[in-house]
Design goal:
heterotrimer; A alpha/beta (646); B alpha+beta (198); C alpha+beta (150); A: alpha/beta; Glutaredoxin; Ubiquitin-like (UB roll); 5-stranded mixed β-sheet; 25 helices; 39% helix; globular; B: 198 residues
Chain lengths: 646, 198, 150
């Protein structure tokens, strides 16, 4: 392992790596991110390596498991360079064909290509796929190109050139000013200007300062930090070292949630590799700047994503937040100046140093610059990670990139910002995505979770879900959050179970005010948001639950009944066969009836009843019609029935 | 320590740098309700009932007076519609657990709080933390601590330590606003103390 | 668990109290749960009050103070999976195993936990058993998948 002692040595080393790699030689990149692995990517990687070996091509063809390129819905994803041919939903059984056809004979296999759901056209290259076309993958683009465990891959793509530039050509103040000029706002939740945060720490009197990576991605449904940290750990590390340089900190921390063992493994490996190469440690690249990094794992507490709680956890204590009357960039970890930023924020730093603040500000809106990675999930055709310029409309993200709502369902709302955020309804879909724009609409950017909801989603249940989550994750120190959320959860649960009362909404609003105004930390202060935003845009659903005992979305289990429409039942017997509670009574040619006493409302009958019959219906807010009389249960032959109905 | 001038409830108050709003108010004879505050202990900021309105550089915000330090020329209001409303909610939330607490009953009268606003959940402990903090910071025995989090949070004695230290100390007992502490001790003593030490 | 092993782990972290969580996580990754004796040893060697350790091992949900079952079942209840019906999957698992999240059954066969987002949202609702992800679950598929674990 070479120790690189100057920026020139790094440059030469990079040239050396590139000279050993022939860009015309095929390189098979298989996504080894969590989603694809769950779909069998590990087997695909092994199959490729074996087949290439078998065919004697190992000298010319490179095969690697790479970071996540975001198109999780269609994984396992394979991209073959240099042509960038993109194959989707690849199975191990497809591998011999791919090697034979594409690698050896340069032919494209149609059936493995992306097929546009609307036009039916096939896309050969990654960049032709509609999912990717409208994206601007400034930060994520390298994931599919590098083996996450290889520092050489990262260096080959230009990695650590920003660090070399910062240490070799810029003063620490230059770096700080560039980040300030870029208007980079935190990508973790609050969107606070990073440059201003850094400056506060830099100017603080206390000489020992810390820089911290917040990789405690706790928002359920968010996995962008996971993809970045697992897929391209060096990019974050490089950003952190640059940040340390800018504020004169010599000690950095990664706080990674324990639920991401692969991320912990990869960042630990990256740190060891960087140390070996002299890119971390003493006198980095001969600049005289020393920097060391420690990795801490979280231990299963969402609240530790809050900056003061995270710092308390780093100190080896229970993660209870501290009052922020003195900001943590002045008094943070061990009461010393600490710059804490999110993974994605740090990932942008090397890009800003290399390409300049002007490049960064050329993308985005007035107040939100650059790109943002969103995890687009829920009731959406193309689930995955998308990176778009700030200012793109929600409509474009959901329809152009996301492919709209599947199964012919109607869009209802998009939930952004995780448990601290809110829901945005259809008539606001032209909203341009940005920190302030989302906040004005009653939601927030948060870490970038974007959960699409359709007509089958009950908005009251959405509020209940998030309040339940936060009640569970509350640290319990302060009354407004611990007790306030406890009561809000109880009331919302009652409403979704048909026990809502007049006055519940007002009581929820009162509890919301106390939590917002008097909670100790941002978890409590933003906890009422899901309730407040769903109340703002979907008040009618709350009132239907409370006043009519009806769930308009037909979703709340205790408030719906399943009923077989006698006019549509053909006695196919599927619902009776599949019912796990033995609640369906029926026989051949006999209209099936659901016994409401036995029914557990699991919804299986509704799902298995063939679409062409559609006999199982959901009812809410009204009594189930009395069962058909025994004498009328016989089904007369369908054709006769049809003509008699006319 | 420099002198800081501020206004509390219309009264000009002189204080020293580093003082909390609560301390400054008390020097001026202004009473702010507290539950988790104690002169001998580090400010906790848990009950939030000492919340006050602060007008600083044109912005009004709510802060807990037991933690927030005095700043030059700020205007503090210890009572207002919003402050009272929030205090009332806090009292009602706590009375669901400890309706018989004398401190809470007295505050309820002042703020018009109703003891039965929320369904009774007789866990009694209001998590003021006075017992835990006193044992850690003053008695320095660490015989009692918190366990778990959120609505499952509880105080819990370490039986091995409590068996040795508590009967000779019990200085935290008078601090408990709900007497739950005494009950917890008796329970721990009878069920969990190492045998031969009762 | 042997005292030596515990001491080794503590020394690996330079006996620093700020590494308390990391030490406990390391002990648990070797032993799969945290026995009282291990906690007492940590308290002694790091000179940290038992109350602090007690708070930490109950505050953070990664720690277990009871032995774990052979099969660790994790049901994702993240928003994306929730919206795709994770509650029904959880109900099915609770019925099949007889335990609720946070519990282990008496035969030490299953330990059940809910988790928030495994990063496989495209495959929701998701059930993870012993690290293996089962995606696109339904109540029926869930019951069948569980039967394969003996």
């Amino acid at each position: 392992m070479p120790r690189l002692n100057t920026p020139e040595e790094l440059l030469n080393f990079r040239q050396e790596i590139l000279s050993k790699r022939n860009p015309d030689n095929p390189c098979i990149s298989i996504c080894a991110g969590a989603g694809c692995v769950a779909s069998g990517a590990d087997e695909v990687i092994i199959a490729f390596k074996e087949e290439i070996e078998k065919q004697g091509l190992a000298a010319k063809v490179d095969t690697k498991g790479t970071g996540c390129p975001g198109f999780c819905e269609q994984g396992p994803v394979v991209v073959i360079y240099p042509e960038e041919i993109c194959y989707l939903q690849v199975k191990a059984a497809d591998v011999p064909e791919i090697v034979e056809q594409t690698i050896k004979e340069n032919k494209v296999i149609e059936r493995l290509l992306f097929k546009d759901p609307v036009t039916g056209e096939r896309a050969v290259h990654e960049s032709d796929i509609s999912f990717y076309k409208a994206q601007e993958r400034t930060v994520l683009c390298n994931n599919i190109k590098i083996d996450s465990k290889s520092i050489d891959d990262y260096i080959a793509l230009g990695g650590y050139s920003a660090l070399a530039k910062a240490l070799g050509e810029m003063s620490d103040l230059d770096v700080l000013n560039e980040v300030k000029k870029s208007n980079l706002r935190g990508r973790g939740g609050a969107g606070f200007p990073a440059g201003r945060k850094w400056e506060g720490s830099r100017n603080a009197a206390e000489p020992i300062k810390y820089v911290i990576v917040n990789a405690d991605e706790g928002d359920p449904g968010a996995f962008m930090d996971r993809a970045l940290l697992e897929g391209n750990p060096h990019s974050i590390l490089e950003g952190l070292i640059i940040g340390g340089y800018a504020i004169a900190s010599h000690e950095g921390y990664f706080y990674v949630r324990q639920e991401y063992p692969l991320a912990v493994e990869n960042i630990n490996l990256a740190i060891r590799q960087a140390e070996e190469y002299g890119l971390l440690g003493k006198n980095i690249l001969g600049s005289g700047f020393d920097f060391k990094v420690v990795v801490h794992q979280g231990a299963g507490a969402f609240v530790c994503g809050e900056s003061t709680a995270l710092m308390t956890s780093l100190e080896g204590k229970a993660g209870e937040p501290r009052p922020k009357y003195t900001r943590s960039n002045i008094k943070g970890l061990w009461n010393r100046p600490s710059v804490l930023n999110n993974v994605e924020t740090w990932a942008n730093v090397p890009l800003i140093v290399n390409k300049g603040a002007d490049w960064f500000t050329s993308v985005g809106t007035d107040s939100s610059k650059g790109t943002k990675i969103f995890s687009l999930v829920g009731k959406i055709t193309n689930t995955g990670l998308v990176e778009v310029p700030m200012g793109m409309t929600l409509k474009d993200i959901i329809y152009k990139i996301g492919g709209g709502i599947p199964n012919g369902k109607k869009f209802k709302a998009v939930q952004t910002g995780g448990p601290s955020g809110g829901c945005i309804p259809e008539d606001l879909l032209d909203l341009e995505v940005g920190f302030d724009e989302l906040t004005k609409a009653g939601s927030m950017m948060g870490s970038g979770g974007m959960i699409v909801l359709d007509e089958d989603t009950c908005m009251v249940d959405v509020a209940r879900y998030f309040i339940a989550f936060l009640t569970d994750e509350s640290c319990g120190k302060c009354v407004p959050c611990r007790e306030g959320l406890r009561q809000m959860h109880r009331i919302l649960t009652n409403i979704t179970q048909g026990r809502g009362k007049e006055g519940d909404i007002e009581l929820l609003e009162e509890l919301s005010e106390t939590a917002v105004e008097a909670s100790l930390c941002a978890l409590g202060k933003s906890a009422p948001n899901p309730f407040l935003s769903t109340l703002r845009y979907f008040r009618d659903e709350y009132e239907a639950h409370i006043k009519e005992g009806r769930c308009p979305a037909l979703a709340c289990k205790e408030m719906i009944s399943f009923y077989v429409d006698p006019a549509k039942c053909t006695a196919c017997g599927l619902c009776m066969k599949k019912c796990p509670a033995d609640a369906v009574d029926g026989a051949k040619k006999t209209i099936h009836i659901i016994d409401q006493e036995k029914c557990t409302r699991c919804g299986t009958c509704f799902e298995v009843c063939p679409a062409k019959f559609g006999a199982v219906t959901k009812l809410s807010g009204k009594p189930v019609p009395a069962p058909v009389a025994e004498a009328d249960r016989m089904i007369i032959k369908k054709t006769k029935e049809k003509s008699s109905a006319k | 320590m420099s002198e800081i001038q501020l206004e509390i409830d219309g009264i000009k108050v002189k204080s020293t740098e580093g003082m909390t709003l609560l301390e400054a108010a008390r020097t001026a004879g202004i009473n702010i309700p507290t539950l988790c505050h104690h002169e001998k202990l580090e400010p906790f900021g848990g009950c939030r009932i000492c919340i006050v309105e602060v007008e600083e550089r044109g912005w009004t915000k709510l802060v807990v007076s037991c933690v927030y330090t005095v700043q030059e020329n700020i205007i503090v209001r210890t009572r207002s519609e919003k402050v009272d409303r929030i205090r009332k909610t806090i009292i009602e939330l706590l009375m669901a657990h400890a309706p018989d607490s004398p401190d809470l009953i007295e505050m309820a009268k002042e703020y018009g709080a109703k003891a039965n606003r929320y369904p009774k959940d007789p866990s009694f402990c209001i998590h003021c933390g006075l017992c835990v903090r006193y044992c850690a910071e003053v008695a320095k025995k660490n015989a009692i601590g918190f366990v778990d989090r959120g609505i499952n949070k509880e105080i819990s004695f370490i039986p091995q330590i409590a068996a040795k230290e508590c009967n000779d100390c019990k200085e935290c007992f008078p601090l408990c606003p709900t007497s739950y502490l005494q009950a917890a001790f008796i329970l721990t003593e009878s069920l969990a103390f190492p045998s031969g030490q009762n | 668990m042997e005292i030596d092993k515990i001491d080794q782990i503590i020394d690996k972290h330079n006996c620093e109290a700020s590494s308390l969580l990391q030490i406990l996580l390391d002990i648990q990754s070797v032993n799969s749960w945290l026995p009282k004796e291990a906690l007492a040893r940590v308290s002694e060697k790091l000179d940290v009050p038992m109350t602090r350790i007690q708070h930490i091992v109950t505050f953070y949900k990664a720690f277990s103070l009871v032995p774990k079952g052979r099969h660790k079942v994790h049901i994702c209840v993240g928003t994306a999976c929730h919206v795709r019906g994770a509650t029904r999957i959880l109900d099915t698992v609770e019925e099949a195993t007889g335990i609720k999240p946070g519990e282990t059954d008496l035969e030490l066969k299953y330990s059940l936990e809910t988790v928030n987002c495994l990063g496989c949202c495209a495959l929701g609702p998701v059930m993870e058993v012993n690290g293996k992800v089962h995606g696109k679950m339904s109540p029926i598929k869930t019951a069948e998948a569980l039967k394969t674990y003996v």
